[in-house]
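Record 1 of the preview.
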Amino acid sequence: MNFVLDPTQWIDRYADYLFSYAYLRLNHRETAEDIVQDTFLSAYKARAQFKGNSHEKTWLTAILKHKIADYYRQKNDHEPIDRYLEQTQDSFRRRFFDDPKHQGRWTTRIAPTLTEYQVETHINSIEFSQTLLQCLGKMPPKLHQIFTAKYIDDTDSEQICKDFALSSSNYWVIIHRAKVLLRACLAQYGFFAP
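->
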């Protein structure tokens, strides 16, 4: 089945989807908007190369993925990974605790722990999605980017190491820290036991 491009309909059909996709991965509204615009422009310029083997949406999403990867590659050239590995736990804890020594109170009240039968309902709820986005947004940018690439984009570990110029050991340290921090944040809102 061959699909034919219709650039006049792209914004109406795909702008919201592409923006949501980009925003989830970038966690910055203006950057997501810019990259989606750039995606449309690049797709328009390359429309003659479209072979029709996939749907427009699939083709545009692939272009967007490359734009996001390029953005992170360019950004990563200027931000050494070691700085994030050292500061991760400290900076994350400061965002959640009133006490600078992290022995005090949470900045907000911890939600009551959910019973087992309520967990499935909450996980599928809009509240959980919003909380997950909040927690991802509180992560240091490097952890957020790599965690999103791994667990939301389902990118292969080898490709992530290549895209972010990471050694295998750095990659696994980042993934572990991201999971620990995300779990702590979700637990703060009552989604998991701490």
